[in-house]
Amino acid sequence: MKLIDFDEMFDEKLSQFMEENAEKYSERQWEEIIPKLYKKFGDTYVAKVKCTPKEYYEKMTDEELAQTLKAHLEQGVPVPEFLCTEMERRDCTSLLLPLLDSNDESTVSYALHLIADDERAYDKYFTILLEDRVSKDVQDEVTEVFKFAADAVKERALSYYKEGKAKEYMLEILSRVKEKEDEIFKILLEEFRSNEENLPLHASYLAAYGDERALPFLYNRIQDESIGFVVFQELKYAIEALGGEYNESRDFSGDKDYVAVEDARVRSEEVS
Questions:
Q1: How far is CA 50 from CA 44, 56, 60, in A?
Q2: Which long-range contacts (C-beta less than 8 Å, at least 24 apart) are formed by 55-58?
Q3: Which letter does DSSP use for residue 120 in this model?
Q4: Which of 138, 192, 199, 265 could disulfide-pair with 134, CB 3.0 to 4.6 Å?
Q5: Whole-structure pTM value
Q6: Those residues with Cβ within 8 angstroms of residue 154's Cβ, 6 or more apart along the chain or in another chain
């Protein structure tokens, strides 16, 4: 498939415009202007295709849009926003689902962004979490989708957790369930109490779940003076998120994380 590289066309026009107006705008102003110019380019007549970039994709069928997106990704040609916008405007989920099976990270990522929280993709989303064919960044994006649909997928998340599959992802999803259940609370609490390595993370899950029955366990853990600054801060946040309060002072002057945070704060104040 022969592709039209609209982004390259825009870059050529942009380079010329910037050269002609180099002295007119600051770097920050250019950051605001360029997106506006790109949007305007979408409505600009392009002789090569005898229409505007937006019209070029509007004329395509759903199948042609999906094939064009796939070709862009396979050939390494930048995907124009105009193509993505047109696909988002329509219901192309069924045509995008096969792209989630790809071993190419960029392909999976584009499909994920375009499909978003469509329930028809949930089976493949769970597969992405259970397999290692994509990076953690993409798996995190899938988890974000599920966090907003936690109640709808909680049974599957519970099942995979009990099977020991992608446990941390399943815990993160379960921590966002709104309809409280003793089983989920007990799982989140047990992980918090038994897993020292991920203590800050599991404290954040208790905070997100919002069950104040966790407070005594958080208070008990924060009293341990051997914990570091990062763990202390996460425990304090979890306590406050659940309606509690902890104001006892603690000396972290010898903690490397605390020293790094303080150094960054001082540098920031000096700059401002």
A1: 10, 9, 14
A2: 56/4, 56/6, 56/82, 57/82, 57/83, 57/85, 57/86, 58/86
A3: G
A4: 138
A5: 0.86
A6: 173, 174, 177, 181, 184
